[in-house]
Prior knowledge:
Elements: H1 7-19, H2 24-31, H3 35-39
Amino acid sequence: MKKRYTEEQIITILREAESGTTPVKTLCKRHNISEQTFFR
Length: 40
């Protein structure tokens, strides 16, 4: 199974969400992932 994102990319996305500057919905749209995937 091929992973779409590297560990570094995932960490960057999660840190950006943790900072609270961007809503999760917008963040998911920007990185082409569903909100369900994000919260999983």
